[in-house]
Design a protein that fits this description.
about 0% helix, mainly beta, three-stranded antiparallel sheet
Length: about 120
């Protein structure tokens, strides 16, 4: 694979960014970033990453033994979302030790909006 055909652009969001699931505040930060990944001439939907310290980690439990690997970001660690009896597997992920081109997302967490109905807003 030609590395130039697979790349990401990471930009700081210049506003307060908030993620909610129903009434639960998952994260709020003025330091969130947006990652736009490009592969073979196509752009994937943008993904917002929040600094770990701005995420309400009480809602998340690390998933042991499950990882995915991206050739430009590295190995992703996953978290399940737990509220009362509501559990969503692999609802969030982070790159603990991203590859050099993606170092801006080290210590950041993103939410899988296809599994967790997260509303993200900017102010």
């Amino acid at each position: 694979m030609n590395k130039a055909s697979h790349f990401s652009v990471i930009e700081k969001l210049n506003s307060q960014t908030t993620a909610r699931f129903g009434d639960a505040l998952l994260a709020t930060s003025s330091k969130a970033v947006e990652l736009k990944e490009h592969f073979d001439g196509k752009e994937y939907p943008p993904v917002i990453y929040f600094p770990r310290e701005s995420v309400e980690m009480k809602y998340f439990q690390k998933v042991e033994g499950f990882h995915t690997r991206c050739p430009i970001k590295g190995s992703a660690t996953y978290y399940k979302f737990v509220v009362n009896d509501h559990v969503v597997e692999n609802a969030a992920w982070s790159y603990e030790n991203p590859l050099p081109d993606s170092n801006q997302i080290k210590g950041y967490i993103s939410f899988d909006k296809s599994k967790l109905d997260v509303e993200i807003s900017t102010e």
